Amino acid sequence: MTVWSLHCSACSYESPGTVLASICPQCGQPLLVRYSSVAPPREALRGWSMWRYRSVLPLAPGEEPVTLGEGATPLLDLPAIASELGVRRLWVKDEGRNPTGSFKARGMSAAVTRARALGVPGLVVPRLNRRRPQSWRRFACSARRWLQ
């Protein structure tokens, strides 16, 4: 099992990864996750979502993730654009194939999974664009189903 902690992106604040947190209580900057391990053993890999790497993600033993099947999106080889740019090869990750149509799906899955595990009764997300609130709603509804 991977152990994780939270640390501030700007100051020296650090806390266990098992506590409810949002921003640094000392300076108000975002908290980042620090993992004890970064390479999962091959035999631990299962499935084809981001949770394939569950052994190195913030997931407690026996905890099931809140997931819509995000991750494992394809890399697309773009030889014509590579040639136009003068590079040997160009690969682009097709994040539009996530269930929410956004690269943010992975972060939302992890955040809603942690929120559910910590007993958070609800989520509030700023509306930064048109897709994000819809994506959060889908994950929140999925978490609610997991609780019932």
Structure, described:
With 148 residues, this protein is an alpha+beta fold. Helix content is 25%, strand content 13%. It has three helices and five strands. It has helices at residues 79-85, 105-117, 131-147, and strands at 4-8, 14-16, 31-35, 75-77, 91-93. Strands 2-1-3 form a three-stranded antiparallel beta sheet, with no helix packed on it. A two-stranded antiparallel sheet has the order 4-5. α2 runs parallel beside α3. The longest helix has 17 residues, at 131-147. The radius of gyration is 17 Å and the shape is globular. The two termini are 27 Å apart.
Total helices: the number is: 3
- Which structural class do the helices and strands define? alpha+beta
Mind describing the biggest β-sheet?
3 strands, antiparallel
Q: Average pLDDT, to the nearest integer? A: 83
Terminal CA distance: 27 Å
Radius of gyration, Cα only, in angstroms?
17 Å
What portion of residues belong to β-strands? 5-15%
Helix content: 25-40%
Q: What's the arrangement of strands in the largest beta sheet?
A: 2-1-3
Shape: globular
Number of strands: 5
List low-pLDDT spans: none
Order of helices and strands: EEEEHEHH
Q: Quick recap of the structure?
A:
This protein has three helices and five strands.
